[in-house]
Amino acid sequence: KEIDLATFETSPIGSYLTYFSEKDNQKLSLEDAQQYFASGPTFSQSSQTIAKGFNVDSTWFKTSINNSMSLSNQYRLSIEIPWLDYIDVYLVSPSGEVKHIVGGDHLPISEQPVFNRFFAADMQFENGVTDLYIRIETTAIMPVPIKLSSVQDAIADYGADKFEYGFLYGILVALALYNLVLFFSIRKKIFGLYVLYILGFVLNSMSYTGHFYTFYTSHHGVHFQDYMDVSLMITYSVIGLHFGRKLLDTHLYAPNLNKAIANISNAIPFIILFLFIMDQLHLATIVAFLFNTSFAILTILLGVLAVRAKASAANFYLISSVTAAICVSVSTAAVAGFLPYNSFTFKAIELGMAFEGIILAVALATRFRDAQRDKERAEEHARKDELTDIFNRRGFKYATSLLFPQFKQNNENFALFLLDIDKFKLVNDKFGHATGDLVIIQVTRLLDETMRPEDVIARWGGEEFIVLLPVKDENEALQLAENLRIAIENLDTQYFDESVKITTSIGVSITNFNGPNQLRSDTEIFEKVISNADNALYQAKANGRNAVCMFNSEDINSNNDEEQNVHNTSPILT
Ligand SMILES: Nc1nc2c(ncn2[C@@H]2O[C@H](COP(=O)(O)OP(=O)(O)OP(=O)(O)O)[C@@H](O)[C@H]2O)c(=O)[nH]1
Asked: Using one digit for the tens of pLDDT, what is the confidence trace for 189-224?
């Protein structure tokens, strides 16, 4: 298998390589390997990248480069995998001269053959056929995307690479920072988990793409990169599973699975740590790879269950986890040689993650919006009376508190009616509770129809209603209350053939935010006006019921002898 430089263009050279693995940990010399290539059985394949999987013996690769046209170009051989421990490249030229280039992450970045690259070596080929031998030894997985290109092409590729990674990492870091701000302002754990998940991914990616390796200033030994890859790989997956479960509220509809995933993801870091301590890096790598594969499957499972349970943001999550799984598969297939190995296929993971990051941010926003809407609905529900569907006490206080600024600004008087159905117990006793309910509903309907849109009505208690309304003066308030009393008196609820008739007593009080009230709080004024209306109501009852009584608003702030301030104004009692 020969590369003809006259026709060769920059590309991975997997299909030009023959290879074999050393046996029984016996390190071969170049001469041994040359002999083996000449006589022993070797392998070759048609894909651009050769992937050797886990725990492979050190492997020799060979190809020949034919420079029949005496091209004097500089070429660059690169193996863009940062975790290959030992890389030896031998060039055996026609003149018999041997060039030996050493690389791999057993060396610090400063001692790599080309500055700032994990492994790259520049070379020129003499006229004729030069043999190229490569020996690779590593404990981790051994994908070997060996690429030959002109130096210019290689440098142009690095530039494009930097830009592409910068762009993808930039999107992810921006999303993480934005959600970090949300985490601190909204104080919801899920935003924090999102930030950790995204940053965990960026760190993991920077490790396995070798970006970290190019940043090292000091060397940490042959296996540092391997340890880091494994640690960051599981960190990101563990956080990803916690994030997924929390985002989708899995515990609500799949408690057992939720617990199982929580337990596994909590145990995995300890298992890996234990294997590290026992110096079982290889086993740790296998566990991490298996866990990462399970991670992709589990996230899809979580998504499917969430969609079935109609969980908030479930669709977004499922789309993002399926996309991520596809992208990881594309990248893995490219590294394993099943798909063309190029910048796009290798970066599919980061591309997928940028997409995932965006979709998950939308999912978070959707979840937050849904939670907010549920909260608003619950609050609205808590302000409503169940039987009549009008405000209850709580709702009334809320609605009136919103009106007060308007009353203050417009210097408006407002009245308060406390309305109590007379002898309601008798209605219940005679016609039954259900009919009593019906009467309450009819009174509500009548209040709704009789009062103006700007008036606030509420059910204050069992058979007691309250109305707050802006009025010009006492006369208007009294007139409106009197109309109400008459309308209720004329109400007719049917109980079989019988007609259920009721009357009401209404206590009225009127006030505004001027005068001495200026110094009082809204709550104080509110409490006072209610207590005055209550006094007036008490008086109306005491006077024989079916009456409207007015509390004298002039004396609203006086505490002495309040009952004297109550004026019976109902025509029926005059
Ligand atoms: N049907 C029905 N009855 C209710 C409801 N809430 C309270 N009641 C009844 O309303 C009656 C109120 O009775 P009381 O407070 O003694 O007053 P009253 O019989 O209306 O007499 P006065 O207020 O003095 O005129 C009680 O019998 C309660 O059971 C309700 O939601 N539905």
From this structure: 999 999 999 999 999 999 988 888 887 767 888 888
Task: Tell me how many degrees the CA angle 273-140-200 measures, rounded to the nearest 5.
Answer: 55
Amino acid making up residue 531: S
Whether the CB of 440 sits within 6 Å of ligand 1: yes
Nearest CA among 31, 1, 36 for reference residue 21: 36
Whether ligand 1 lies within 6 angstroms of the CB of 352 is answered as no
d(CA 50, CA 282): 20
Q: Could you tell me how many residues make up the chain?
A: 574
User: Could you give the CA distance from residue 569 to residue 574 in angstroms, rounded to a whole number?
Assistant: 7
142, two tokens: 């051994």
- Concatenating the DSSP letter of every residue in 364-407 gives HHHHHHHHHHHHHHHHHHHTB-TTT-SB-HHHHHHHHHHHHHHH
| Residues whose CB is less than 8 angstroms from the CB of residue 317 and which lie 6 or more positions away in sequence, other chains included | 244, 247, 248, 299, 302, 303, 306, 359, 360, 363
Kindly give, in sequence order, each residue whose CB lies less than 8 Å from that of residue 127, ignoring residues fewer than 6 positions away.
67, 68, 70, 94
Residue among 392, 422, 425 whose CB has most ligand 1 atoms within 8 A, to mutate:
425
Chain mean pLDDT for the chain: 89
99 pocket-lining for ligand 1 (C-beta < 6 Å): no
CA 188 centroid distance within chain: 10
Average pLDDT over residues 459-466: 94
The Cα angle at residue 166 between residues 163 and 172, in degrees rounded to 5: 145
State residue 176 phi and psi, 5-degree precision.
-65, -45
CA distances from 39 to 32, 33, 89, 174 (A): 11, 10, 21, 57
Chain position carrying tokens 């609203």: 556
**458: Cα separation from own chain's centroid:** 40
CB of 429 closer than 6 angstroms to any ligand 1 atom: no
| Predicted TM-score of the model (pTM) | 0.73
Q: Mutate which of 428, 437, 442, 549 to test ligand 1's pocket (most atoms within 8 Å of Cβ)?
A: 428
Q: What is the pLDDT of residue 569?
A: 52
Q: Is 442 exposed, middle or buried (0-12, 13-18, 19+ CB in 10 A)?
A: middle
Residue nearest to atom 14 of ligand 1 (CA): 425
Report ipTM for this prediction: 0.96
Q: Whose alpha carbon is nearest atom 11 of ligand 1?
A: 425
Confidence of residue 559 (pLDDT cuts 50, 70, 90): very low
Q: What is the pLDDT of residues 131-183, one digit of tens each?
A: 999 999 988 777 788 899 999 999 998 899 899 999 999 999 999 999 999 99
Q: Tell me 27's DSSP state.
A: P
